[in-house]
Amino acid sequence: MVSVTIVTWNSEQVLRECFASLAALDYRDLEVIIVDNASTDGTPAALREVESRWRVIYNQTNTGFAAGQNQAIREARGQWILCLNPDVLLNPDFVSQLVAAGEAHPYAGTLCGKLLRWDPGAPQHRTRIIDSTGIYFTRNMRHLDRGAEERDNGQYDRAQYVFGATGAAAMFRREFIDAVTVEGQFFDEEFFAFREDGDLAWRAQIMGWKSLYTPVAVAWHVRRVTPERRSDLPLVINWHSVKNRFLMRGKNASTWLCWRLFFPVAWRDLQTLGYALLRDWRMISATFCWVGAWKNIRRKRAIIQSRRKVSDRDLLWWFCNTPRSVDAEKQSANSE
User: Fold this and answer.
1) Which of 111, 189, 225, 232 matches a 20 to 30 Å C-alpha distance to 198?
2) Contact, 131 vs 123, CB < 8 A?
3) Under 8 Å CB-to-CB from 204, ≥6 apart: which residues?
4) Domain 2-227 has CATH 2.40.160.60
5) pLDDT tens, 203-226?
C-alpha cells in the first residue's frame, strides 16, 4: 500500500485539481490522509467533499508543514509514504512508476520524479519548465532544485541518484522513515516549514541512504518560493528560511566540513547578516535564533552523528555549485 499524506493551509485555489489527479492514479492500493492546519479560506469546504473517500484531520491551530506531515505519517499504514503538497498535479502513473523504481533499487530510501511547473489559470497550465529533478547542495551549504527554471528538453531523462528530493512530492520507504526519524519526528518540527526537505536529505546521506530520481514519474508543481523572488515573499517565509539554514547546519555538518567550506559559508552568512542590518531588522532574530535553540540542536546532533555511516569527507563531493548525480545503472553495477 502507498499512503499519500497532504498538509493543507488555505489551499482552496489548487485543492480540487490536486484531488482530481489523485483520483485518476492507476495505482489502486492507495490511502490518502489529509491534515488541515486551521485553514480560514474555502479549504474546509473542499475537504468535506472528499471525507467519504479519504481521511481528513482538522487541526485547531496551524502546527506547520513539518508537524502536519508527521501527524499524517503516524496515521499511515502504507509501506510507501508519498508526502505531497496540495499544489501538485500528478500524472496517472506517477505513483506506480515510483513504486516500481523503489522495488528495483532497494538502497533508495527516497524517490522523486520529474516536477514541472504548474501555472494555474494559464491557457497552458502544465508547462515544460522544470521545477525540480531532485535537490543539491552548494558549497555555501544552500540547497537548490536541480534544473529549476530550465526548459525540459530531455536533459534529465536518466534515472539517477541525487542528494535528495524536494518536499513537494517525495516518496519514502517505510523502513527509511523508521531509520532516520529522530526523537519521534521524521521532519524536524522545529523547522515549522521550509528547508525541512534539505535537512532530511542531509540526515539521510549521513546515515547511508540514497535518493533516486526517476524521470518517467512526472508531476506539476506551483513554485512560490524561489531565490529570485525572495524580496517579494512574506516575512514569515523569509524568517523561517533563514532560521532553518542555521538549524540544519548545526545538526548535520561536522566540524571538518564547516572548516572545509568555511569561506563560501561565511560569505553567505555575512550577506544574510548584512541584509538584516541594512534592509530588514526583523530578520536579525532569524539569523541568531539558533542561539536560543542550541540545547535542542546539540541533542539532535548527537543522535544523528551517532548513526553516521558516511563520513563528511565522502559527502563533500555532493557540495558543489553545479548539480551532481550518479547514474542509477552505474551505481547499481558498482554495488553488485
Assistant:
1) 232
2) no
3) 109, 110, 164, 176, 180, 211
4) no
5) 999 999 999 999 999 999 998 755
